[in-house]
Amino acid sequence: MMSFRQAKKFFVIVISTLMLVATIVFNFGTTSAWAATLPAPFTSQAQFISMNRADAITKNLEGKAQETLGNVTGDSKDQIMGKAKQVESQMRNAAEDMRDEIQLSNRAKAVAKNVEGKMQETVGNVTGSSKDQMMGRLKQTEGNHQNIIENVKDGIGDLFN
User: Fold this and answer.
1) What tens digit of pLDDT does each residue of 35-62 get?
2) I need a labelling partner for 40 at 20 to 30 A (CA). Which of 5, 31, 80, 98 fits?
3) Nearest to residue 54, comparing CAs of 84, 14, 83, 27?
4) Cβ-contact 56, 93 below 8 angstroms
């Protein structure tokens, strides 16, 4: 038979899942609504949350609920399917983490190039070296162009999501 603790855990998972599903179905907290409350850097890019992450969270909650149901009823099929959904959720999150890391690394390279250029230009200004000033400006321009390329990539990616 089911203990009070198991029943409580089961109902918490079921209620959480229902709240998440209602949020998604009725578009509470849509990306556009979130974007309206975020600072400017987040509004220009869809960095806050992606639908893939939301799907992964939903899949994880489904899996937990199904596994708990299987534990309560003693149905091994529900237990296994619930665990499988949780593993699928972990794989989706890992893929999103990798995607975010790749995007950040390109952005980080652009920012680093820009900062390096500003530093070199400043050194050129202090020492009077026109070569350092020019190379610094060139690096800043390169960093800015890389940021523009990343913005275009993000825009194209948003079209297909």
Assistant:
1) 444 444 444 444 445 677 778 888 888 8
2) 98
3) 27
4) yes
